[in-house]
UniProtKB/TrEMBL annotation:
Species, as recorded: Palaeococcus pacificus DY20341
Binding site for Mg(2+): 64, 66, 118
Coiled-coil region(s): none
Quaternary structure (record): Homodimer.
Domain tRNA nucleotidyltransferase substrate binding: 154-275
Reaction equations catalysed: a tRNA with a 3' CCA end + 2 CTP + ATP = a tRNA with a 3' CCACCA end + 3 diphosphate; a tRNA precursor + 2 CTP + ATP = a tRNA with a 3' CCA end + 3 diphosphate
Protein name, per record: CCA-adding enzyme
Annotated GO biological process: RNA repair; tRNA 3'-terminal CCA addition
Keyword Disulfide bond belongs to the record: no
Enzyme kind, highest EC tier: transferase
Residue ranges of every copy of the Polymerase nucleotidyl transferase domain listed in the record: 35-141
Residues annotated as signal peptide: none
Family statement drawn from the similarity comment of this UniProt entry: Belongs to the tRNA nucleotidyltransferase/poly(A) polymerase family. Archaeal CCA-adding enzyme subfamily.
Length: 450
């Protein structure tokens, strides 16, 4: 049964002969454009295709082309940035469209005949000792995977689709999941898709995967990486660089989802792990009444940032609000964030009121601090040797949040501060466009764990 399911999945995700021919034709056309521009610029630059299209681990319909422009090692870094971007932009002008993008240094992101194309300047490195920018390793990654994959390309495809299906795929800062490269390494290490799933518990307990044997070859550097990453759920020493944990972006939450979903699939395999149905939503208001909790929503204008910038700042703001509201005396169960027409932060809280009076404990009465406390507060009493006072405070959670924001007592994403301070604060109510989101959040179905 399991094999039948995997074959059915492969039929959906494996590129057809026609698609492969299209990919190779487009790659050939791009390579021609790139070589023409390199020659026109008079540069000693080698073009390299990297990523899943170069390694033949891409899924059907997934047409992202990563083309790296590798400069000689003797080129100064500032010259690489300047000349590399000029070259990338000259190539970009020959695409259907392009724009400037940023990583460690600027690169070009464009479109060509329906394909997404990234043109990235880098150094032409042959070992980790020569790596000078973060993107340099990509060439080494490509070589290592091609050397060790040994025809297990479809196993990578199955694992990649499984990760996408359970929503743990992607190393972006707002995803915190398994990268494509990490997916390939897990297959190379374990042997097959099913073997990776069977090793989920072992991965958690052993925690350290060392495909290249750095703990023997470069023990001191590898141990430094392990020590630095000891709080991570998984450490995979990069087979091309002992200083790097390939799984550094992976969060405990995403690893836990993989941990449980792997067990579930092995016990009861189903194609729905790869292609999940949309979770059913119901009335969030009935759910609130049944749970006896409350939903608090901050709704504000969405800045025009890309997800790589916006979503991390939304997460920081949501967690900052959670912490500040709890510190103010409210019980917060969970937080959610995202955007539709507007950006939003949701908090599920136990109650909407806190006591109007807060008892403030003070120092021992006979100390200098005790005298200051006595002078500072109007209502003071002694219990044992210590002074106490009473402080009146706002009790309604909306008033408290407004106060916290006005006094800058909430840690917020730097580009969202002004927008959040102007947010509408809704209690047990969301606009029509957020009804589904509210239900999935309150029911925990959004996290797709069970």
């Amino acid at each position: 049964m399991t094999r039948d399911i995997l074959q059915e999945v492969l039929q959906k995700i494996k590129p057809s002969k026609e698609e492969r021919e299209l990919v190779e034709r487009i790659k050939g056309e791009l390579l021609g454009l790139v070589r023409e521009e390199i020659e026109r610029a008079g540069l000693e630059v080698k073009p390299y295709f990297v990523g899943s299209l170069a390694k033949d681990t891409y899924l059907a319909g997934d047409h992202d082309i990563d083309l790296f422009l590798a400069f000689p090692l003797d080129v100064p870094l500032n010259e690489l940035k300047e000349e590399g971007f000029k070259l990338a932009e000259a190539i970009g002008k020959r695409l259907d469209s392009y724009e400037k993008a940023y990583a460690e240094h600027p690169y070009i992101s464009g479109k060509y005949k329906g394909f997404d194309v990234d043109l990235v300047p880098c150094y032409d490195v042959n070992s980790w000792r020569e790596v000078r920018t973060a993107v340099d390793r990509s060439i080494l990654h490509n070589r290592w995977v091609l050397k060790h994959l040994n025809g297990r390309n479809d196993e990578v495809r199955l694992l990649k689709r499984f990760f996408k299906g359970i929503n743990v795929y992607g190393s972006e800062i707002y995803v915190k999941g398994f990268s494509g490269y990490l997916t390939e390494l897990l297959i190379i290490q374990s042997g097959s898709f099913l073997d990776v799933l069977k090793s989920a518990d072992f991965m958690h307990r052993k925690k350290i995967i060392d495909p290249e044997g750095w703990l023997k070859k470069e023990r001191e550097r590898a141990l430094k990486t392990i020590e630095r990453e000891k709080e991570a759920p998984l450490i995979v020493l990069d087979p091309v660089d002992p200083r790097r944990n390939v799984a550094s972006a992976l969060s405990w939450e995403k690893f836990a989802r993989f941990y449980f979903k792997a067990r579930d699939f092995l016990e009861k395999p189903s194609i729905e792990f790869f292609f999940p149905k949309e979770p059913q939503a119901a009335d969030y208001r009935e759910l609130i009444q049944r749970k006896g909790t409350h939903l608090l929503v901050l709704l504000f204008e969405k800045p025009s940032f890309i997800d790589d910038v916006l979503l991390p700042q939304l997460e920081k703001s949501a967690r900052g609000l959670w912490k500040a509201v709890e510190k103010a005396g409210f019980n917060v169960y969970d937080a959610n964030w995202g955007y539709g027409e507007k950006a939003f932060i949701m908090l599920e809280v136990e109650g909407l009121e806190r006591p109007k009076i807060k008892v403030h404990p003070g120092p021992e009465f006979y100390t200098s601090r005790g005298l200051n406390f006595y002078k500072k507060h109007d209502m003071v009493w002694v219990r044992g040797r210590n002074l106490f006072s009473e402080k009146h405070q706002k009790s309604y959670i909306v008033d408290v949040i407004i106060d916290l924001l006005e006094k800058n007592q909430v840690s917020l994403g730097r580009n969202l501060r002004d927008a959040i301070k102007e947010a509408d604060i809704l209690v047990d109510f969301v606009p029509p466009g957020l009804k589904r989101e509210a239900y999935l959040f309150l029911s925990k179905k959004k996290w797709n764990l069970k």
